[in-house]
Design goal:
With about 250 residues, the chain is α/β, with parallel strands linked by helices. It has eight helices and eight strands, in the order ααβαβαβαβαβααβββ.
């Protein structure tokens, strides 16, 4: 069952992640893959946004004065490091349980993050605007991809940047991200991903162009089983990130 036609919410997806809400910050639990994934994502986000806004690479909080939306924030695994880097962060998620977990953890860390149980379209309708939008591993879980991207693009300020991360719809992604990660290695609960919902880079590029954003960069992410680390790669067959900007 999915949400209404004018909604990005996929009720089944929200229920699936809500059931795991208490486990977001357990680095050895069901979200261990995301914790291992995070350093590569964070390095790319920091580097890309520093370049976009011409901020000081050596500054401890280089993004003071910039507002960031972490859409589909889950338990706050990206929201918290973004807040530490100086962003004014709004973390949004359709799951109230995720938002409660994220809020509680941020409070424990002494971080001020504006967490809300809401959707991209509701935020856009309310007139929210951001310099940076993180759209990380979310689009493959929403019910209406076009509405989702249109809503996100509408919230991006002129000169702003949105970073989208998702899974490519290839047989390699099916073999590694679903069969391997969910069924063989047990890294993720079975049913976490549906291959048919994956998005190819060409599809994402076209969709973003339709919202008025310009794609600046496409990078892949690859896992090294020997070092148990993720790193940037030219291989976009499984995981990839795309940076898109709005004209100033």
């Amino acid at each position: 069952m999915t949400g209404s036609p004018a909604s990005t919410i996929d009720d089944a997806e929200v229920a699936r992640f809500s059931a795991l809400a208490a486990e977001w910050w357990d680095e050895s639990g069901k979200f261990r893959p995301l914790h291992r994934f995070n350093p590569a994502r964070l390095a790319y986000i920091r580097e890309t946004v520093l370049k976009r806004f011409g901020r000081d690479v050596k500054a401890r909080r280089p993004f003071e004065g910039l507002r960031l939306l972490d859409i589909g924030c889950g338990g706050g695994l990206l929201s918290e490091p973004m807040a530490r880097l100086g962003f004014a962060v709004l973390g949004a998620d359709a799951s109230e349980k995720n938002v409660k977990t994220a809020s509680a953890h941020a409070a424990e860390q002494g971080l001020e993050i504006d967490y809300r149980a809401t959707t991209a379209e509701a935020l856009a309708e309310a007139g929210e605007r951001f310099d940076v939008i993180l759209n990380m591993e979310v689009i493959e879980h929403v019910a209406d991809k076009a509405l989702f991207l249109k809503s996100c693009a509408a919230m991006l300020k002129p000169g702003g940047i949105m970073i989208v991360a998702t899974l490519n719809r290839t047989m390699k992604a099916w073999a590694l991200a679903i069969v391997g990660a969910e069924y063989v290695l047990g890294w993720l609960p079975r049913g976490t991903h549906e291959w048919a919902k994956f998005v190819t880079p060409a599809e994402l590029r076209d969709a973003l162009a339709g919202t008025g954003l310009s794609v600046e960069e496409l990078v892949g992410l690859a896992y090294n089983p020997i070092s148990d680390q993720w790193k940037r790669s030219s291989d976009t067959d499984v995981n990839y990130m795309m940076a898109a900007t709005k004209a100033a």
